[in-house]
Write a structure and sequence with these properties.
The protein has 554 residues and is of the alpha+beta class. The chain is built from 12 helices and 22 strands. The strands form 6 sheets. A 6-stranded mixed β-sheet has the order 13-12-11-14-15-16, with helices on both faces. Strands 7-18-20-10-9 form a 5-stranded antiparallel β-sheet. Mean pLDDT is 83; it is low at 1-74.
Length: 554
């Protein structure tokens, strides 16, 4: 575990003159004296309970650091998370169809990793199982022809946490594209430079993160930089991507100070993106921030409407989260969703390299839009089922064929994975009580060997009409021993469940999750699976902290 040399107060980083921090790239830096913008006293900011929506009243909110004398001290933790309850178990005879939008976000996993690295028990609402699962690659085969932008993979096997149950793994792999073959990029960096961005894990890390992307830019690309703090300002006009020195110099000029006028910043960023719009290219605003917007357009619904309107003009929005204390995960994730973008949390330089360099193509480009998955389970084979994660991506069944309904996008090389827990008919593992008046004779015998019918809809870039892919899952394909990929994905799902209370996989202990992940670690060139195993151990230590012994009687 990496330790900070400064005391942590919950998840808020304390910035005190003379205190050194260990930024998570294993380099120590000395914290500088607080900038003038942080030396002014301001009202105490209210604590936002986990899951509570941001204030819509537009009341001023202070940055998470306030001056007392010559020191900067942390305010109460105001991080905001929203996540509905786990998907319920469904009876197949009553609800045989499940529909959801794909999700390629990974912000929940790296954000929770940051908390565990800091020795903090993550709140349950911060844990989104699908983002944990999709943080890792599972080696799916690439499509043979770009005419169909991705290949569908399915696997049916016994559940590692309960041999009476089964797991259906659905994987999507987008076609890969070399960096040289990528279309031109039109990028606008929208950077939060408010006072709360002063600490080393915020604006300084943000600048170094974006600096890693700059050498990847080409002459046909365009980059602009917009900063927002109190009022929005243009830091760098649209500039050819190969002018690396000019772009780096503009990044270095960014300084933290002031309040956060996010609404004005977004408006200016989209104006710059429209000015340099590239037909057939990647037109994207990249919003980098530590928290919620506190002046200007602060109402979440108004921001979503603004971003949704700009999305229809062909400009996507990606959000990158930084820092601790006032991080608004709910806002960052939702804006990326409505902006046809993705959301990541940057807790280290290595994560920045992963998102902005190693996976640059899948982060910034789109090969399939509005990708939806629909699964119909055969009641003759499946008694009950449960979708693991994707709670805020669930769609109405009628939305599947409605091309007006927005869904997730996939970039080149992207992998998307979804897991269903299945209870086979006659297994005795049912969780729902038997119905007194139900017809006990199962239906669906016309397709006796089919467990489920998997359907996918997607749109090619520039098209308003969706294409359909169908793939049945046969009972004869059931594997007694899950593949390495399915075992590791199951361990990741088990870890997410354990952090959320362990209610959905009660028969799976922390030790069993660790053992499954270790056994299925496989090829791990980046060390991400090994790191995952250490995170599970850290989570276990925080969740299963031994109770203090009772005091001895006199």
């Amino acid at each position: 575990m990496r330790l900070r040399s400064c005391a942590m107060v919950m998840m808020t980083t304390m910035v005190v003159a003379g205190c050194s921090h260990k930024v998570k790239d294993d380099r120590y830096v000395q914290a500088l004296p607080a900038p003038p913008a942080l030396q002014k006293a301001s009202p105490v900011r209210r604590v936002v309970p986990s899951g509570a929506p941001p204030s819509a009243a537009g009341a001023p909110r202070r940055d998470p650091f306030a001056a007392i004398g010559s020191q900067v001290v942390p305010a109460a933790n105001t991080e905001v998370y929203e996540r509905p309850d786990d998907n319920p178990v469904k009876r197949t005879t009553e609800q045989p169809v499940s529909t959801f939008s794909v999700d390629v976000d990974t912000g929940s996993y790296s954000n929770v990793r940051r908390m565990l690295d800091d020795g903090v028990r993550p709140p349950a609402d911060a844990v989104r199982a699908e983002e944990f699962i999709n943080y890792f690659n599972y080696g799916y085969a690439v499509p043979a022809d770009k005419a169909v932008p991705f290949r569908v993979h399915t696997e049916l096997a016994r559940a590692p946490w309960d041999a009476r149950r089964q797991v259906l793994m659905i994987g999507i792999k987008g076609y890969e594209q070399s960096r040289a073959a990528l279309p031109p990029m039109n990028l606008v960096f929208l950077v939060d430079t408010s006072g709360s961005m002063y600490s080393q894990d915020k604006l300084p890390l943000l600048k170094r993160a974006f600096a890693q992307l700059v050498p990847q830019l080409r002459s046909q690309d365009r980059v602009a930089i917009v900063a927002y703090a109190g009022s929005a300002g243009l830091v760098l006009e649209p500039t050819p991507g190969d002018q690396h020195g000019k772009i780096i110099a503009a990044l270095e000029r960014l300084q933290a100070g002031g309040s956060t006028n996010g609404g004005a910043g977004i408006e200016l960023a989209y104006a710059m993106a429209r000015q340099s719009y590239v037909e057939g290219g990647a037109n994207r605003v990249i919003l980098a921030t530590d928290g919620d917007f506190n002046v200007g357009v602060a109402n979440r619904q108004a921001l979503e409407t603004l971003v949704g309107d700009r999305r229809r003009s062909g400009i996507a929005l990606t959000t990158l989260g930084f820092g601790t204390g006032n991080y608004n995960d709910a806002m960052a994730e939702r804006l990326a969703d409505v902006g046809d973008g993705n959301h990541a949390y940057i807790d280290s330089l290595s994560e920045a390299r992963r998102v902005l360099v190693r996976e640059m193509g899948s982060t910034l480009f789109t090969i399939a839009r509005d990708v939806k998955i629909q699964v119909e389970f055969n009641p003759a084979r499946v008694s009950e089922y449960r979708l693991i994660g994707y709670e805020n991506r669930v769609l109405n069944n009628e939305d599947f064929a409605n091309d007006k309904v927005d869904a997730g996008d996939i970039g080149p090389g992207h992998e998307v994975t979804a897991l269903y827990e299945i209870v086979p008919v006659g297994s005795g593992a049912e969780q729902l009580p038997a119905l007194r008046y139900a017809d006990k004779a199962p239906t669906g015998t016309a397709h006796g060997d089919e467990v489920a019918d998997v359907r996918l809809r997607y749109k090619l870039p520039g098209s308003d009409s969706s294409e359909l892919i169908r793939q049945p899952v046969l009972a004869s394909t059931l594997r007694a021993t899950p593949s390495e990929s399915l075992r590791f994905a199951s361990a990741v799902a088990g870890f997410a469940d354990a952090l959320r209370g362990g209610e959905r996989m009660p028969g799976w202990s922390w030790e069993q999750i660790i053992a499954t992940a270790r056994d299925a670690r496989g090829d791990d060139p980046e060390g991400e699976r090994a790191q995952f195993i250490q995170l599970v151990k850290a989570g276990q230590g925080l969740v299963e902290t031994p109770a203090r012994p009772a005091p001895k009687a006199d």
